[in-house]
Known about the structure:
By secondary structure, this protein is of the alpha/beta class.
Amino acid sequence: xxxxxxxxxxxxxxxxxxxxxxxxxxxxxxxxxxxxxxxxxxxxxxxxxxxxxxxxxxxxxxxxxxxxxxxxxxxxxxxxxxxxxxxxxxxxxxxxxxxxxxxxxxxxxxxxxxxxxxxxxxxxxxxxxxxxxxxxxxxxxxxxxxxxxxxxxxxxxxxxxxxxxxxxxxxxxxxxxxxxxxxxxxxxxxxxxxxxxxxxxxxxxxxxxxxxxxxxxxxxxxxxxxxxxxxxxxxxxxxxxxxxxxxxxxxxxxxxxxxxxxxxxxxxxxxxxxxxxxxxxxxxxxxxxxxxxxxxxxxxxxxxxxxxxxxxxxxxxxxxxxxxxxxxxxxxxxxxxxxxxxxxxxxxxxxxxxxxxxxxxxxxxxxxxxxxxxxxxxxxxxxxxxxxxxxxxxxxxxxxxx
Length: 402
């Protein structure tokens, strides 16, 4: 257990890290990454299927890691570069951010030592040389710190700032692997992760979300009617559209219908003039809601405001951002003309695109990822059967009733 040592001070005994005791097995530490990399291994080198390992990684290290951690693959592995970029922006001051504490574990007991500093006693946790702690929570963050230092494109001054930046960690010492496994469970399972709608609505630094928020206020039909928190619109809610669907609408103006692949993940907008995108999105969304506001508000009877439909309508707007400014009004009117042929009411003509049908005869909405491509085809491709189906065979040359 990490208890206060009474032995004579020996600064050669290990790595000394400023700390605060919580209980006999738990210690908070304030640690620079240059120290953290000495008392941990890069989680990547602890994976059981790795063929080549650094010389200081033992079989026991790999075995202990496998007892208290999951494999680093799938989403966990792919998140490392993204997290590393976040850490870089955080430590360089480019972005005001926050890094949660990393929970570290060792089955061995550690000791705490006191140093007198200007009349005040400071406590330091000693990790003996050669000992390595394992992350039982925050392992992706730890791997991202290592990834940042390995990145050959990272400027040396950034790496130096990162190495000297202070991080927060909690050390659990003198605990068995069974207890550490339980801690992994408690830290990863008992918490309730917020849904994507809440996470998106709380992101105050994402320029895309700033644009979407301005649309929700500036488009007259949407003001006060955008659901920012819930993943679903409640039956009696006065809201008409979810924030996430509005975000997808904007993404698809840039990327076309393939933009649905991004979902709640960041979508690349580096090549886009955001002011121009805001103008195009505002005018197209205003025109769409002005033309079909009644149907949009009729969530029970029409498909106009469904996520898959908005994704497809947004994708149709890609032609607007690609068109010369002087032709955008004309292009927008051409798009609206084709959409005014559509029967937006829920019915069998939307089966296979925006809707499915239950055995009891009720219609259910298909999600954007599931059906946005099919809806886009139905709305924009005159050669497709679905195009004729949702228009009941009408064409733009025929009169369209109001």
